[in-house]
Design goal:
heterodimer; A: 537 residues; Ubiquitin-like (UB roll); Rossmann fold; seven-stranded mixed β-sheet; B: alpha+beta; Glutaredoxin; 11% strand; elongated
Chain lengths: 537, 169
């Protein structure tokens, strides 16, 4: 036995390789580009070793071993493509498929189903099983989760998730042998804030999200790698859309932020994109403004203003905030303050997952761009300036569900400005009497960078929802305004604006969109040498 | 099936449970014998009984549910007063356990897995009861009835009926 710090030399498919001691065969093989199939194994969960699909041939065992739990050792020789290994996988697949229905054409998992993939790659092309398949329950396990018991291969990933990650333990395997299936205790449904993850990790179509059920075939959807705007955790997500409509959000693996998980608040929190109250066109004194005319109207109002103030929200990207800063500076001494829409509570889970109490995805970023007292002293300053009527024109950004969440205090205050320009996602009292209402993008529709509570900058990308296709984003409108003000020749992409930000702000210096990539980077961790990047992402 | 609202272990059962806990490395590990206690205290393991055990042991009820349904030897809710478990593994099968099952079915008018209308009998086929030398075997609740001829089966049923009658059932 070698100690945990040493490396181990072993042989993989005839090639001698080296890995850190203590790794499992599966993990070590992956390092060398050899993928071993898996059903019950999940890197975020304990090892169960019950599906047997990962069996490989070993020189240390007369029978094939399971590579998910066997560790590498000096002199170990593993073959993943030998007759023994191929035959073992073939047999396991045949067993897995004995009671599995051939309902892929109506199964929501089809297209991203591990069983489908492994059956194609490792399974026999026909079944020798001529007996009757057994029938297991199809029912609701909770408000968001349904089970198709016939499809269940009893890998217990979902059971282990509820035991180890959410710590709620609602799921169990009932009965045994070929009657065994995942179930809940009668009267105790699966109802926790992480429940949706059980659907993601189900390798087959047994656990189905009742929200996504029958909504779309997975291969037809467009995927956008984005960031959840539900809280300042900034979970990395994949936004999946069909013809401009978001169909579902799934977590994207990022071991520095959210591991493999996301919470249900974020997962199902996208319906506001299609709310009836959603604003889709600009309104100037009650008259609709064409999408191309918005910035002109904005310029007209601002150029006649004697004193202008800006009220920004913490959903805005760093790029948008940077544009606001540069516009405010050119207007000369404008006040910029921020407001915080939502209060929340923190939720932590035994598996280490955390839902932040701070429900604002870019509070940190806003403080970096516009000053650390943006939401405190600056806000108080603006409040008193508004109360004593010294603000001629106020430009307010009202993201989220509007001021109600913050106690509605700003509702009264903003009406005290002489003129009012409102960027809002939703129709609301804050739009009443405004001189110009500009439709704003919501989280998931924004293109840019957010900084999460751990000071990690991450790129959120626009899922190009149908709604946001009807109007230019704030990023465009604000830049067009700059063009009107002769501050800019032509609008740039978000990457271009971010470069301007990184050149003028210490906090962001050295960072770029391409450098942040898909998984982001802590702001303090500056890339050593950045390749020059064009204005387009 | 009398499920009282105040389901609780007797003092004696609780003592036994405490003793059990001292013998296992974790609380959860004592689940199997604790279920045995619950079974003898409550007569059956239905939803309220499983919930009671889960609360007592501070483990998720789903865990208890999974364990109870995994084993065939726990008395689950809806089982009659006499649970006739006919061994149907090799030795018993060779010595005529199939006929024993048919005989019980004929006499009681119930199929395998069913409970008689009077609520007295439930018939199950189980795997090896470890009494191959005295095949065929019926396990009735905790008692073995061995080397059964078909007449013995009739007599057993008759005897159980009388017992139940005496008990004022």
């Amino acid at each position: 036995m070698s100690d945990s710090n040493s490396t181990v030399r072993w042989t993989l498919n005839g090639t001698e390789v080296e890995n850190e001691a203590g790794m499992t065969i599966m993990e070590a093989a992956k390092v060398h580009g050899v993928d071993i199939p898996q059903f019950c194994y999940h890197p975020g969960l304990s090892i169960a070793g019950n599906c047997r699909i990962c069996m490989v041939e070993s020189n240390r065992s007369p029978k094939p071993v399971i590579s998910c739990s066997e560790r590498i050792a000096e002199g170990l020789e593993i073959k993943t493509q030998s007759e023994v290994a191929v035959d073992a996988r073939n047999s396991v697949m045949e067993f897995q498929l004995i009671n599995h229905p051939l309902d892929c054409p109506v199964c929501d998992k089809a297209g991203e189903c591990v069983l489908q993939d492994h059956s194609y790659e490792h399974g026999p092309d026909r079944s020798r099983f001529v007996e009757d398949k057994n029938i297991r329950h199809t029912k609701e396990l909770g408000p968001t989760i349904d089970i198709w018991g016939n499809r269940c291969i009893v890998c217990t990933r979902c059971v282990r998730f509820c035991d180890e990650i959410s710590g709620t333990g609602e799921l169990c395997v009932v009965e045994r042998g070929d009657r065994s299936v995942v179930d809940v205790f009668p009267g105790v449904p699966i109802d926790n804030s992480l429940a949706g993850n059980t659907v993601d990790i189900c390798p087959v179509g047994a656990l189905i999200s009742s929200d996504f059920k029958y909504e779309a075939r997975v291969w037809n959807m467009d995927k956008t790698s984005s960031v959840c705007g539900g809280c300042s955790r900034g979970c990395n997500v994949e936004v999946e859309t069909l013809d401009g409509f978001v169909k579902r959000l799934t977590p994207r693996e990022n071991l520095d932020v959210n591991d493999w998980w996301m919470c249900d608040h974020g997962r199902y929190g996208w319906r506001h994109l299609y709310a009836d109250s959603r604003l889709e066109s600009a309104q100037h004194d009650g008259q609709a403004v064409s999408p191309t005319g918005t910035s002109g109207a904005l310029h007209q109002l601002l150029s006649s203003s004697s004193s202008t103030a800006f009220l920004v929200d913490p959903y805005m990207t760093c790029e948008e905030l940077h544009l606001v800063r540069s516009i405010a500076n050119s207007l000369g001494g404008s006040t910029i303050a921020g407001w915080l829409p939502a209060a929340g509570t923190e939720e932590t889970f035994p598996g280490g997952f955390k839902i932040s109490a701070d429900k604002h995805p870019n509070r940190k970023g806003a403080e970096h761009v516009l000053g650390s007292d943006l939401f405190t002293a600056s806000a108080d300053q603006l409040k008193s300036a508004l109360s004593n009527g010294s603000i001629d024109t106020l430009v307010a950004f009202v993201g989220g569900d509007g001021f109600e969440g913050a106690g509605g205090e700003w509702n009264d205050l903003i009406s005290k400005a002489g003129k009012r320009i409102v960027f809002a996602t939703q129709q609301g009292s804050w739009c009443d009497g405004a001189d110009l209402v500009v439709p704003a993008t919501a989280p998931l529709e924004k293109e840019g960078v957010w900084v999460n509570e751990d000071d990690r900058a991450q790129r959120t990308r626009s899922c190009r929802s149908l709604t946001s296709n009807h109007f230019p984003s704030e990023l465009v409108v604000l830049q067009e305004l700059q063009v009107h003000m002769d501050l800019r020749n032509r609008p740039l992409s978000a990457a271009g604006i971010f470069r301007e930000l990184s050149e003028t702000s210490d906090a962001f210096s050295g960072h770029s969109h391409s450098g942040l990539g898909d998984s982001g980077s802590p702001l303090s961790q500056r890339p050593a040498a950045m390749s020059s990047e064009g204005g387009h992402s | 099936m009398t499920v009282t609202e105040t389901l609780a272990f007797s003092d004696e059962a609780m003592k036994k449970y405490e003793w059990l806990l001292s013998r296992y490395p974790t609380r959860k590990a004592a689940l199997l014998p604790t279920l045995r206690i619950a079974e003898s205290e409550f007569g059956e393991l239905g939803v309220p009984q499983m919930k009671y055990v889960a609360d007592l042991m501070e483990i998720p009820p789903a865990t208890v549910f999974g364990v109870v349904t995994f084993y065939t030897h726990y008395r689950r809710a809806g089982v009659g007063k006499y649970h006739l478990q006919v061994c149907s593994t090799l030795s018993c099968a060779l010595r005529g356990s199939g006929d024993v099952v048919s005989r019980v079915t004929e006499r009681l008018g119930i199929g395998v897995g069913e409970t008689s209308e009077c609520g007295l009998f439930t018939l199950s086929k189980v795997e090896c009861l470890g009494s191959c030398d005295t095949a065929p075997v019926i396990q009735c609740n905790d008692d073995y009835h061995e080397g059964l001829s078909l007449e013995d089966v009739d007599a057993l049923i008759e005897q159980l009926r009388q017992e139940a009658g005496k008990g004022g059932a």
